[in-house]
């Protein structure tokens, strides 16, 4: 729960609000046009309205084939999107607009990625350092974690796998219920107590930054 957050009475409308996407992407004739699965598709309606027309090409295994790996550099690299390689994954920080969880998931999928999953303390620490280096250590960031299928049983939507490593803020997840009846079913990163970016459950309709990933 976000302490001091005002109850939201227009959340349903917010869940389908279009957002203007930054022009960060190399033009390509191929790329995923898929929306987020399940409830996300219902909330988003038809088509990826939040994403720019230029798409990213994907390889035979669905990897993002036209993305910049900032850790390697531009010359001679197959990536043409600003990603940072940390371990076996590449990450994109969605910091040019804020979106609800469904829209953020759609945006990542449209560009051949997924909302991030975090599987170790090492991965969490590296991602936190990357976010802090951008001066955004006190912001909120969506991950793919959710318990929409079963209350209290969180899993990574990006992989379908249950969460094994955990890094929750103290007292979380608490599934706080707001005056409008909405509960907290989506996982964000948040430096709530000044103790680093830890996990918090939040209403999926809240709009915030997000982290995409690709192998």
Automatic annotation (TrEMBL):
Residues 1-20 form the signal peptide. The keyword Ion transport does not apply. SUPFAM superfamilies: C-type lectin-like. PROSITE patterns: C_TYPE_LECTIN_1 (PS00615), C_TYPE_LECTIN_2 (PS50041). The keyword RNA-binding does not apply. Keywords: Disulfide bond, Signal. Residues 86-213 form the C-type lectin domain. InterPro entries: C-type_lectin-like, C-type_lectin-like/link_sf, C-type_lectin/snaclec_domain, C-type_lectin_CS, CTDL_fold. This is C-type lectin domain-containing protein. It comes from Gryllus longicercus. The lineage of its organism: Eukaryota, Metazoa, Ecdysozoa, Arthropoda, Hexapoda.
